[in-house]
Amino acid sequence: MKPIQVGLMGMGVVGSGTFNVLRRNQEEIKRRAGRGIEITMVADLDMARAQSMVGEGVQVVNDARAIIANPDIDIVIELIGGYGIAKTLVLEAIAAGKHVVTANKALLAVHGTEIFAAASAKGVMVAFEAAVAGGIPIIKALREGLTANSIQWIAGIINGTTNFILSEMRDKGLDFSVVLKEAQRLGYAEADPTFDIEGVDAAHKATLMSAIAFGIPVQFDKAYVEGITKLGAADIKYAEQLGYRIKLLGITKRTPAGIELRVHPSLVPTKRLIANVEGAMNAVMVQGDAVGTTLYYGKGAGSEPTASAVIADLVDITRLHTADPLNRVPHLAFQPNAMSDLHVVPMSEVVTSYYLRLRVADQAGVLAKVTGLLAEAGISIDAVLQREADEVAGDAGNTGVAQTDVIILTHDCVEAKMNAALIQMQALSTVLEPITRIRKEELA
After folding, report:
1. Which of 272, 278, 271, 269 shows the shortest CA–CA distance to 245?
2. Residue 369 bears catalytic tag
3. CATH fold of 138-299
4. Cα–Cα distance for residue pair 118/112, rounded to 1 Å
5. How large is the C-alpha radius of gyration of the chain?
6. CATH assignment of 4-137+303-338, given 3.90.1150.10, 3.40.50.720, 2.102.10.10, 3.20.20.70?
7. Which helix (H) or strand (E) holds 126?
8. Which of 205, 247, 253, 299 does the annotation list as catalytic?
9. Does domain 351-440 have CATH number 3.30.70.260?
């Protein structure tokens, strides 16, 4: 059978990895797919560089629309990234009857509903395994492997940059700003790391997993997003003493009130496997009613790990290329006419437990005032840790007020209650710095 022909848009890190892995393992892939898969056309602005990478026999162009216009191309791989021209090209490829493979989580998290609807109407597939957790086949696991389950919750370390930073902060006792510079030097963090450190990248991925797990539209605009920029080395140290590690988690959960969709730093018990995922690695926990808890671990980024996911999508499309569109696996696991309109719960209504760190004056009655305010708010305390006082120098070398850190772990409460209590605690004259609040997830 004639090989299926593929056009590749973007010959960057992932594009070059995809080309190299496909060429290196072409016989193995052909045996699995049932026919050959060949990248016969590449679009990249740096044509000379791209041509040197692909060699003879592959047409290189600087206009991605030339790939879409080529009637011999069956599948288009979009590895350009971003929301702009990538969206236009993906929709044009779909309109031209091409199947699409993409690693663009930002595009799908924001415009996925429109893109999937266009693909369904045209009878083509949009595959995006590489958009979440790199080489970990989490999309396939959620969409197919766990299809018998009612998914209860998902919690994932799905951004390698932030996990590397948090691991280094814990191992070396350094503050966030110092470790970020080192991450940039080593190439783990971009020159502009905002999407990573502010949690946006993880939220894009969590949005896609939530849609597949619960059969809801992609709704990135309803996700709660909080990054790691306010975490200090002291919080990492105290968490460790209490038997926890701090991880940036993407969480989506089914509750009686609706679906939770949130990204934020979380204390996770050290005994959980996911708490021990270090460096730039990714891991995703999934809780299903039939299977229980499953864990998926591996490299979440990089040239060949991500290429592994891109090529898996190529194989899937090749196998199903001639199948009746109605018999293919739906883009978001559930049939388009069976999608749910479940409510996405605002963060103020989420129920969880908390770690609080207060820098206070070391005076009698301070702890009683703080715990009293929590009690008045209906928030019960799980544990309290008070450190030895530090003497702080005052003006002109005079001895200032003695200060100490008070760490409080709470039981579950509604976030709105905690927000109100924090305002009252912060107003106390004996609370000397902004209070640090980190949510706690037992993941039991």
Report:
1. 269
2. no
3. Dihydrodipicolinate Reductase; domain 2 (3.30.360)
4. 10
5. 25
6. 3.40.50.720
7. strand 126-127
8. 205
9. yes
Q: Which two tokens stand for residue 90?
A: 């993906």
Taking the complete model, does pTM exceed 0.90, yes or no? yes
Task: Decide: helix, strand or coil at residue 238.
Answer: helix
In the chain, domain spans: 4-137+303-338, 138-299, 351-440
How confident is the prediction along the chain (444 residues), in pLDDT tens digits per residue? 899 999 999 999 999 999 999 999 999 999 999 999 999 999 999 999 999 999 999 999 999 999 999 999 999 999 999 989 999 999 999 999 999 999 999 999 999 999 999 999 999 999 999 999 999 999 999 999 999 999 999 999 999 999 999 999 999 999 999 999 999 998 888 899 999 999 999 999 999 999 999 999 999 999 999 999 999 999 999 999 999 999 999 999 999 999 999 999 999 999 999 999 999 999 999 999 999 999 999 999 999 999 999 999 999 999 998 788 888 999 999 999 999 999 999 999 999 999 999 999 999 999 999 999 999 999 999 999 888 777 665 554 445 679 999 999 999 999 999 999 999 999 999 999 999 999 999 998
Find all residues with CB under 8 Å of 66, minimum gap 6, and list them. Answer: 41, 43
As given in the structure block, the two tokens for residue 15 are 């594009």
35 Cβ contact list (under 8 Å, min separation 6): 1, 2, 3, 4, 318
Mark 235-262 as b/e (b = at least 16 C-beta within 10 Å).
bbebbeebebbbbbbbbbbbeeebbbbb
How far apart CA 354 and CA 266 sit, in angstroms, is 9
